[in-house]
Amino acid sequence: MTAIPTAQQQLDFIAKIQRLFAEGEFSATYKYALLIALTEIAVESDVQDGRELLVSNRQIADKFIELYWKQTVQYVSGLPETKPGILVQNHGTQAAIVNAILSFKKSYSLSTSPLRAAKDHNEYRELQGRVAIVVSAQPLNFLQNYGGVNHSFIYARQKGQIMLLPGVVYCLRTFQGLIQQLARARWVEYIKGHKDNQAIVGQAGDLESFMFESARTNLTTLGRLLKKLDGHHCFYCGETMQSNDVDHFIPFSAYPRDLGDNFVLAHASCNRSKSDNLASIQHLENWLNRKQKKQDALQEISHEAGIVFDAQASKSIAHWAYSLALQADGSAWVKSKDFVPISQNYILALAH
């Protein structure tokens, strides 16, 4: 086991990240996407100490496609002074990755298809390769530049891959919330501030939801399918429910990525009460048992609803979330107004 970074090393890392945002050049949105991609890869890995991590350019490209796929449909603000359009992501011509995804969608009649359908397509690997070339030539080359100097503090370049340096995975996992919040906020600011987006966006205030969250139609479909699989009962309280409301088991606010087996049916009241809290041990064990026993069905449902399914990633995310909460002496939600301390038992449950 490799030693984790010291408190000072962690502070130095996040200070450099902040300098990157403050002093780096952002002529396109690629660097924001790269920071989000790297934090997700770190959280979804099995590295929990100070070890380095090899990451292929194709892995990063896959994350880029997932991030930009949602943004290659027309944004419709509904405001009278605007017109529908695809958001411009680059100063000058449209970003190459956006054009590559648009071309792929058009060539294979996938314009209205969810990303899940695209990943199943025979030519998806070709798209992944095209995006990997752009990622390698642009954001991977320039992300670590700030103040006019290259600071190789996140990764070292290798042929077809990068090496996340010792301690970096740990720091990315620790500061995931801050880094993603900064990257998303700056990305939205970039889109709003781009002159070519003014006629599309106007004074709209829902850009972040459009850019980063699953479509409500997908979640409606998912809820209907989950009811067929799990029955007409709230996952948390067990009582009968008529609606198809779904809840992120690991809160979206803690980890803003939609994965199929992270969704459960929940009463509106249970959903509101749980809010952004982690669930208690009995709910966690039920979730883990459900993942194990119904994995194939959950995968099929996710595909039908157009939502990405990755059983290992969702479990790694849960392990990360509960580990951070344990370190912070956090509490877990049992039911309305009922919380219990998070203990090592949660981590042991996730280790099996």
UniProtKB/TrEMBL annotation:
Residues 222-272 form the HNH nuclease domain. It holds the Pfam family HNH. It comes from the Bacteria. Transmembrane segments: none annotated. Keywords: Endonuclease, Hydrolase, Nuclease. The keyword Protein transport does not apply. The keyword Hydrolase applies. One of its GO terms (molecular function) is nucleic acid binding. Signal peptide: none annotated. Coiled coil: none annotated. This is HNH endonuclease.
